[in-house]
Amino acid sequence: MAYNLLKGKRGIIFGALDEKSIAWKVALKAKEEGAEFVLTNAPLAMRMGAINKLAEECNAQIIPADATSVEDLENLFKQATEILGGKIDFVLHSIGMSPNIRKGKDYGDLNYEWFQKTLDISALSFHKVMHVAEKQDAMSEWGSIVALTYIAAQRVFPDYTDMSQAKAVLESIARNYGYRFAKLKNVRVNTISQSPTMTTAGTGVGGFDAFFDYADKMSPLGNATAEDCANYTIMMFSDLTRKVTMQNLMHDGGFSSMGISEDVVNMIYQNQKQEANS
Ligand SMILES: NC(=O)c1ccc[n+]([C@@H]2O[C@H](COP(=O)([O-])OP(=O)(O)OC[C@H]3O[C@@H](n4cnc5c(N)ncnc54)[C@H](O)[C@@H]3O)[C@@H](O)[C@H]2O)c1
């Protein structure tokens, strides 16, 4: 059911790679809720071509931009405001990539050049996006900027390796730029900390299936899906959340408040029984 929550709003959505992407679901929901927006992704990702299908469905234009390039971002914001006919009301940063994870490097054996790439792509890009938006005075008063993050910023998930540090930096940037943008233009900046989700970035992390199941069993409401995340993100873009800023918002079915759950206890008992019988 649509509520016209984003009627008349203009946005930029980063990070729709394929139908599984969280940004893809956000784009569909934003359209349903009456927004106009441009889609953007790294030129390399664009070559996979799936984003064209989304653009058609949403009647949106695509502007390629590598989010680590200030020049690309300047071009993106300039073109986006021209195409959409005014300042930007919402931005979704849905970007994450670690060459170390992609190439299976263990935390004790990280390649430091790649580590810097992880930080640049997954965290500093968020600062660059807001820096360009500020310089071009491209954000509307009471606009909303959201980046997606993961609880590995606060807790240890060994296979998440250098992405844990990237997410901690990302969340810190949200707080610090959030202060600045609130003072400048009443723009709010938040991160949404999402459950493990079956996407290209998610399933690239070692042992993903196991920690997806573990999180699901630990969360009293179960893992939040990409669609659930899209709904929450739309609410954050809407005028219903104007005074929420500089927050890391947990969107995880209750996972972050749990110590242990009955489901996990039962799973361990079952394993112990199987081991005893074998
Ligand atoms: N999937 C999960 O389990 C999960 C959980 C919590 C948070 N998140 C976060 O959600 C966000 C979206 O990821 P997703 O799960 O939808 O996976 P995804 O792989 O569909 O999206 C990641 C996107 O980042 C883009 N990207 C990579 N390098 C880029 C660059 N240099 N410039 C511009 N874009 C670039 C990719 O092209 C891709 O579209 C990420 O920040 C991710 O860390 C994911």
UniProtKB/TrEMBL annotation:
Positions with a binding annotation for NAD(+): G15, S21, I22, I95, K167
A Pfam family matched in the record: adh_short_C2
MF terms in GO: enoyl-[acyl-carrier-protein] reductase (NADH) activity
Record-annotated active site: Y150, Y160
GO BP term, pick one: fatty acid biosynthetic process
The enzyme's E.C. designation: 1.3.1.9
Annotated metabolic or biological route of this protein: Lipid metabolism; fatty acid biosynthesis
Substrates-to-products reaction catalysed: a 2,3-saturated acyl-[ACP] + NAD(+) = a (2E)-enoyl-[ACP] + NADH + H(+)
Keywords annotated in UniProt: Fatty acid biosynthesis, Fatty acid metabolism, Lipid biosynthesis, Lipid metabolism, NAD, Oxidoreductase
PANTHER family: ENOYL-[ACYL-CARRIER-PROTEIN] REDUCTASE (PTHR43159), ENOYL-[ACYL-CARRIER-PROTEIN] REDUCTASE [NADH], CHLOROPLASTIC (PTHR43159:SF2)
Family under the similarity heading: Belongs to the short-chain dehydrogenases/reductases (SDR) family. FabI subfamily.
Name the UniProt record assigns to this protein: Enoyl-[acyl-carrier-protein] reductase [NADH]
Organism: Adhaeribacter soli
